[in-house]
Design a protein that fits this description.
- 38% of the residues lie in helices and 26% in strands.
- By secondary structure, it is α+β, with helices and mostly antiparallel strands.
Length: 189
């Protein structure tokens, strides 16, 4: 009879406490959430899709791994910028072959860019310092899309457009005297 009691006690197992079940469910939920996070934020880490194919000759099923095509990176900056403006080197801008007092051709316009800043406050400060020099400037905000980092906004401080080389060079020399190096840009029409 003592043997029967011992067998009954061994066959009855005690139930797991509730906190064990809760901890297990929490762990599984967090693991699934982590996998979803990885899939959404790091698509390159996801496993390649498998496709079941059947060959006619052997009639067997095998896994074929498809490698996803690498996303083609598209940089609009390199195609848009050359269509809008051209940077003119200092040697060409100050060449002696050009009549300095002659007006520009009617189909071309030149501007000076005194700086490009990530923060609007910095661009506004540059504009204010140019105003103290007697030079009127404008701030042009441009959003550049970078596929790796997302969109970023830059604030360009620009002067002009100018009607003649002499006026433009007068402004450039005033800026240089005050340690401001400006980039000469030709706008395409």
């Amino acid at each position: 009879m003592a043997r029967k009691m011992a067998k009954k006690n061994k066959s009855k197992s005690t139930p797991l406490p509730g906190w064990v079940w809760m901890a297990t469910g929490l762990f599984i939920g967090l693991f699934v959430a982590f996998l979803v996070h990885l899939k959404d934020n790091y698509p390159a880490l996801s496993l390649p899709a498998t496709e079941k194919t059947t060959t006619k000759q052997s009639r067997d099923t095998r896994d074929v791994r498809k490698t996803p095509a690498a996303p083609k990176t598209q940089f609009d900056f390199y195609t848009i910028l050359p269509e809008m403006e051209i940077a003119i080197p200092d040697s060409e801008a100050s060449s002696s072959n050009t009549d300095k007092n002659a007006p520009f051709k009617h189909d071309s316009q030149f501007i000076l860019q005194a700086g490009s800043f990530k923060k609007l406050a910095q661009a506004d400060q540059m504009k204010a310092s140019l105003a103290l020099l007697g030079v009127q400037a404008k701030i042009q905000s441009v959003t550049i899309n970078n596929p790796n980092k997302g969109a970023s906004t830059w604030h360009r401080v620009r002067l002009g457009p100018y009607d003649s080389f002499s006026e433009m060079n007068r402004i450039r020399s005033r800026l240089r005297r005050n340690n401001i190096e400006a980039l000469l840009l030709k706008l395409k029409s």
